[in-house]
Amino acid sequence: MGFLDKLKSSLTKTKKNIVERVESILLGRSIDESVIDDIEEVLITSDVGTEATNEIITLLREKIKVGEIKNSEDVRSYLKTEMALLLGKPQPLIPFGEKPFVILAVGVNGVGKTTTIGKLASRFISEGNSVILAAADTFRAAAIEQLEIWAKRSGADIIKHQSGSDPAAVAFDAVEAAKARGVDIVIIDTAGRLHTKSQLMDELKKINRVIKKSIPDAPQEILLIVDATTGQNALRQAQIFNEAIGITGIALTKLDGTAKGGIIFAIKKELGIPVRLIGVGEGVDDLKDFDPEDFVAALFDYNQ
Predict the structure, then answer these.
(1) Where does the record place the SRP54-type proteins GTP-binding domain (predicted)?
(2) Which residues are annotated as a binding site for GTP?
């Protein structure tokens, strides 16, 4: 199965939640105010978000008013074009600058953070890069063990301390080791749940500061991993993490199991943070660069 087919299959539930509901509204109706209201309700209730929905609907009304949109087919075409424009150009995760390129991976527990890190490591190594994984989620012994499994599977090195040790010390040691060994990429796993939210954010800020003591320009990427199945909750997580440490990119996991893939529009519109990666399955190759045009094409595809 090619990636576009895999993406279409993954977006089946989201497509039903957005596109097929819009289709049923347009069926046999002329384009009037009640149709616009119904489309607006679909977008709002399918996690597209209020800001993105307002932009789409305001422009739709204007185009109907001046006669650019006259029928159902025009509405379909408009929605497809506008939703792709809203998501912007692809902004993949590409290492840059002096080595090592440091990725600080953050997110709450249960979103697939360690798995995403493992898949990223496999990808970078398959592209000829050397990788060190840093087990800085020291609060869960299981997280360290899981990262070790991914290190062995991908061929990455791993830097770890004992469970319960200082996460910032692990991150610092990993970056120093990468410098000493001439390693290309460091990916740092972090805790997702401490006793309080402020404690978690303070811990991440400390890790960030300590990395900069070794490499002032690092981490070059602060990658937030969010679970698409959580919908608006994913947007809230992105807001909180962004306020605390400044997110540079998002990996959206578990798109294959949710009807809430519309959250991708809300994240882009309300936060302006690029979605760099999407997870569309369990396989090591199922973490892909996010391409807005492919995403919208898969969403509006009718030959399934």
Answers:
(1) 274-287
(2) 107-114, 189-193, 253-256
Q: For residue range 58-83, list pLDDT tens digits in order.
A: 999 999 999 999 999 999 999 999 99
Whole-model pTM above 0.90? yes
Does residue 269 sit in helix, strand or coil? helix
CA 50 to chain centre: 19
* CA distance linking residue 135 with residue 187, whole number of Å: 9
pLDDT recorded at residue 304: 41
Helix H segments across 140-231?
141-154, 167-181, 197-214
State yes or no: pLDDT of 36 exceeds 60. Answer: yes
* CA separation for the pair 288, 272 (Å, rounded): 20
Classify the C-alpha dihedral 107-109-115-117 as positive or negative. positive
Q: Amino acid letter at 234?
A: A
Q: How many CB atoms lie within 10 A of CB 278?
A: 26
Query: How far apart, in whole angstroms, are the C-alpha atoms of residue 195 and residue 135?
Result: 19
Cis, bond preceding 292 (omega within 30 deg of 0) = no
Closest CA to 225 of 283, 287, 176, 178: 287
Binding site listing: 107-114, 189-193, 253-256
The string of pLDDT tens digits covering residues 171-199 is 999 999 999 999 999 999 999 875 567 88
Mean pLDDT of 285-300: 92
Q: Report the DSSP beta bridge partners of residue 226.
A: 252
DSSP β-bridge partners for residue 134: 159, 188
Cα distance between the two ends of the chain: 13
Which of 84-88, 198-202, 245-249, 266-270 shows the lowest mean pLDDT across its residues?
Answer: 198-202
